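Raw record, unedited: DNA ligase
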Amino acid sequence: MTEELVVDARVAEPFLSPEDYRAAVEEIRSAAALYYGGAELAMDDAVYDSLMARVAATEATHPEWKAEESPTEVVAAGGGVVGDVVHSTPMLSLDNVFDEETLRRWAARLDRLLGRPAAGYTVEPKIDGLAIAARYVDGHLVQVATRGDGRAGEDVTGQARRAAGLPERLAEPVTLEIRGEVFMTDADFEVANGMRTGAGEPAFAHPRSAAAGTLRAQDRTYDAPLSFLAYAVHGLGDGAHSAEMAAVERLGIATTAGSPAGMPVCATVDEVLEAVQALNAKRGSLGFGIDGAVIKADQPADRAAAGFSSRAPRWGIAYKFPADTRTTKLLRIEVQIGRTGVITPVAVLEPVQISGVIVTSATLHNFDDLVRRNVWPGDTVFVRRAGDVIPEVTGAKLDERPADAAPFEPPARCPRCDGEIDRSQKRWRCTRGRACGAHESLAYYAARHSMDIEGLGGKLIDMLVAAGLVTDPADLYDLDVPTVTKLERMGEVSATKLVTAIQASREQPLSRVLTGLGVRMTGRSMSRRLARHFGTMQALLDASVEDLQRVEGVGPERAVMIAAELVEIAPVITKLVERGVNMTEPDTAGPAGPGASSADGADRPDLPLRKPDGTPMTVVVTGAVPGLTRDEGNEAVERLGGKSSGSVSKRTDLVVVGAGAGSKAEKAEQLGIRIMPADEFAAVLTAHTS
Ligand code: IVH
């Protein structure tokens, strides 16, 4: 019955022909056979779920096409490896929901079945591993079997005995059956890959397939770690699920309830939704992969009354989170050198959407890891983005490696300064450390568009760095005239001028400090937006990834990057503060802390460059504006509530045209965009700021 499968005929598109339907059924069956057999994932979860939803939708509209033993009806979509251990009761599946509405529909249906509201629900993590049943006799672990086809599974006692959380002996001599999930924590996965590549085998691509392969392994020379969390027990009486899990935990078995994810008991669906959201929010910090939340009626009476469909209980449901792992193509590997000289390989990816975010690059951690994970340019790779964590490439699909692919050649010398590379640690470093990037970061800090320190040019920076006087921008403020005079060709007059210019730069607004610090994925105008939004450096440093996303133009990927960058440069910021560098933005309404109203004028429709709906006009300044440099012109646009842009398009709202304007002014005329002469713009600015 497809009614049982809450995945969703409402949103999924049915297939239009029986041939397409059957092809999809076959595709699901073969992917499921690989998945449950412990091989590498044949398709990523999101694709699998949506194919399954389309099959269900087709069966709802064309029941006459329905395949015998449709994957929507049978456990493990018919893909489980059947063994000879017959389960005491069938090991069933769970139906899925993907959003609030379908969860509410499920709960309403449960209430209808019961004829009254359910007496409480539990919310626990849905572990992304393999279901097993473990039999204990008189407190001793005697047999462990996989789910198989739900009726009988394979004996995996040998390997499962090693799983942390599934002890050999219990605290009491009880006889019972535990059901739960064998999986690899993130730490297990690291260790497992180290062992595997150490044994000369290709790395595991994904924690789930690593756990599946390990659980079913017969004759490996190494024992990769496994973990276990129980989610059900048979033979402990007939208590509430929450009470039973607490009892299982007391016997010494690890449970989902006792894991960092926890298992709150909720009285209402609203509380359930809150708990599901809270679990999703901490998904990235659990230390193991989950692919959703499982909601269950807590009371045995409710469970008995609700019963089962052919493949799943009606008293429980899986609320699937958006897939955190997808596959995509690794276009190339770039080498990034951090501020402290750390050299990191970065994956440039064919854009892929992972839990609502387009991911285009991901970390590859370090060069050892790159070899260990056996990832080559051109490979189809698994990319994981868990919570707020920067996306990572976990492995490659080796069977899809192009014939002409070749491993990546790590750099022999530092790509930035040509210095030697220190390879003694996992994280390679340029032996010049902070000094490696010092020239670049100091030049950027001193530049006209940043802190505008007159006289601090490339040659002088080289001399200061070579003399060991300066490695980061904050060191500039420690320079005094006698020290600078000691440099080659530096008289007292120029030294005084330089030191004065450096000291004067302490008054620059926060937006310029931010620009000067060169936060990755931000430029001048983004720095201005950030400064204007938060008002002070402290408010910016205190901002969460969500707070950052309230700034125009900051999406989730950029927000994560900015947050990570701010953590990295925090020590330099502290040094700058200690040296009296201004960390506030003038003309802002003050700090916009979490929940505070925005200081960037988003709530100020009175600004001259706002559209009637309060959103910023897109403004291009071309040619000279009297009294302003080009940068100042752009700053002025933003101060007046607009958004400055460098090129004219249909989306431009206004073009400010000054002396010497060229093709941009012509294009604006052709497109019929409003034009404002530069002197009029200057007058608006004066009127607004005076
Ligand atoms: S309860 C009668 N709880 O998800 C079915 N299952 O998609 C009882 N799973 O077969 C299952 N975490 O392998 C339950 N906390 C959890 C789970 C969980 C993972 C797996 C389990 C199940 C599959 C259904």
